[in-house]
Amino acid sequence: MEQNKEKLSPQAWRTKQHFKQAFTELINEKGYSHVSVTDIVQRAQYNRATFYLHYLDKPHLTDELKQEMFEQIKRKSMERYESGKIIETKSLDTNSFELISFIYDNRSFFNLYLMEDTIPGLYQDLPQAVFELLDEQFTLMAQGGRDLNSKKFKLYMAHGTAGLILDWARNGYCESPREITAQLISILQVFAVGFQVE
Predict the structure, then answer these.
(1) Phi-psi region of 196 (alpha: psi -120 to 50; beta: other; left: phi over 0)
(2) Which residue range or ranges hold the HTH tetR-type domain (predicted)?
(3) Beta strand 192-197 with 86-88: parallel, antiparallel or unpaired?
(4) Residue 6 DSSP symbol
(5) 2 contacts 24 by C-beta, under 8 angstroms
(6) DSSP-derived secondary structure for 109-142
(7) Angle of the 122-137 helix axis to the 58-78 helix axis, nearest 10
C-alpha cells in the first residue's frame, strides 16, 4: 500500500490516484454500496484492464485508500516537528499544524465520514490515527503536574479532536483551517504547557 508507492512509476502512481479520486467522488454521490468497478473506471476514464492491473477488486481499492489517508493524517501532523524537540504550547500559532489544512484540501474524502453508506470501518479511522499519533509520537507536559500521557487520556484527546474536526465538516467547513487550528491550540493550552516529539 503506502510502501508500494515507492516502486510505482509516476504514471502508475497517477493512475491509481485517478481511481481513488473517482471512487471518492462516486461514494459521495451515491453511497459506497452502490459504486461498482464499472462506475469507477468510467469516471476515471480508464478501462477495466487498467483497473485490474492495479487492484484485485473494489475492496482492495477501498483498503488502499483507507490506509493511504490514515498514514497521511499521521504524517501531516508531524511535518513541522523535529524528533526530540520540546515545544511550548504558548508558542503555537495557526501555522503550527498541517493536519487541518490537509483535511480541508481533501474535503471530498473527509465528507465520507458524514455519510451513512460509507466505506466500512471508516468512522474509527480518524480518532484511531490521532490516538496512534499522540501515543507514539508525543509526550505531553501538563499544567499542574498531572499525568497526560496515559492511554486513556490520549484516547479521550483523540476522540475530542476527531469530534471537533467532524463537526467542522458537518457545518460545511464554514470556519477557515486557521480558525479551527486556533481552537485546537486553545483547548490544548488549557491542560498542557508543552510537548516533546518522540
Answers:
(1) beta
(2) 13-73
(3) antiparallel
(4) G
(5) no
(6) HHGGGG-SS-STTHHHHHHHHHHHHHHHHEEEEE
(7) 30
* Rounded alpha-carbon distances, angstroms, from residue 138 to 36, 81, 135, 198: 41, 10, 6, 6
The DSSP call for residue 172 is T
CATH number assigned to the domain covering 3-197: 1.10.357.10
Q: How far is CA 116 from the centre of its chain?
A: 19
Confirm if 51 and 40 have CB atoms less than 8 A apart.
yes
pLDDT digits (tens, 9 = 90+) for 33-51: 999 999 999 999 999 999 9
- Residue 73 in 3-state DSSP? helix
> What are the residue ranges spanned by the domains of the chain?
3-197
Q: Examine the pLDDT at 1 and tell me if it is beyond 50.
A: no
Question: Considering the chain, what is the average pLDDT of its residues?
Answer: 92
Question: Residue 88: phi, psi to the nearest 5?
Answer: -85, 135
